[in-house]
Amino acid sequence: MDSSHSSAAAAAAAAAAGGGGTGGSGGNGMIIPQTNDTETKMDDPKQNLNQVINSIQKTLGLLHQLYLTVSSFNVASQLPLLQRLNSLVLELDNMTKLSEKCSIQVPMEVLNLIDDGKNPDEFTRDVINSCIARNQITKGKTDAFKGLRKHLLEELEQAFPDEVESYREIRATSAAESKRLAQAQSILPNGDVKVKPEL
After folding, report:
1. Average pLDDT for 87-113
2. Distance between CA 42 and CA 48 in Å, rounded?
3. CA nearest 21: which of 70, 73, 90, 12?
4. Where are the stretches annotated Disordered (predicted)?
5. Which sequence spans correspond to the domains of the chain?
């Protein structure tokens, strides 16, 4: 088993030992389902996702415990086996209820990569590389248009110097007005300046 499964199993075993087993046996593997007081809290999407992740980890721990019980099964371990099966069913039911509050959209490409046994991070890498390539193409086009504009202004200035000068004055006035308007809109009533949130 890998470290994530063993850590989930250790967490589940700790929950079983400290979570109130029956009698004085302590480590019989029975996990008492905890009441879910998170329903009274605000439905925060990140919190809902964390609850689903915790439920998945708890389920993995229960599956590991179940595997250990089944692999060393004897008549005496029938009761712990039934208790662990019941705990697994309760946790799966809890996971289903928690997942109804989460609305996560996973791209089909990610699921296909997982089905193919590949790392889903490849999808993220491919999307980022695609965005970088498109950004470079767009930047090249923008630079080409800037060069064309500069070249056209130079040519127009040679042919029509007065008109180009008045165009530049109008352009400078318009840019200053736009800047002043943007600054006026970003000032709050208390004098503070709005700051654009970074995405």
Report:
1. 88
2. 10
3. 12
4. 17-43
5. 45-104, 120-185
**Residue 83: what pLDDT?**
92
What is the model's pLDDT at position 101? 85
Question: CA geometry: angle at 97 spanning 93 and 99, to 5°?
Answer: 115
Q: Hey, what are 33's tokens?
A: 């389902």
The Cα 10–Cα 64 span in angstroms is: 10
- Residue 33's contacts (CB-CB under 8 Å, 6 or more residues apart) are 87, 90, 91, 94
Q: Any idea what the Cα angle at residue 90 is, between residues 85 and 94, rounded to 5°?
A: 145
Contact criterion met (CB below 8 Å) for 199 and 192:
no
Is-contact 87 74, C-beta < 8 A? no
Average pLDDT of the chain, as a whole number: 78
d(CA 176, CA 184): 12
Rounded Cα–Cα distance for residues 195 and 127 (Å): 29
pLDDT at 12: 44
Angle at 127 between CA 106 and CA 125, to 5 degrees: 95
Residue 30 φ/ψ region, left for φ over 0, alpha for ψ in the -120 to 50 degree band, beta for the rest? beta
Six-digit token string for 4: 């994530």
- Model pLDDT, residue 122: 86
Q: How far apart are CA 176 and CA 154, in angstroms?
A: 23
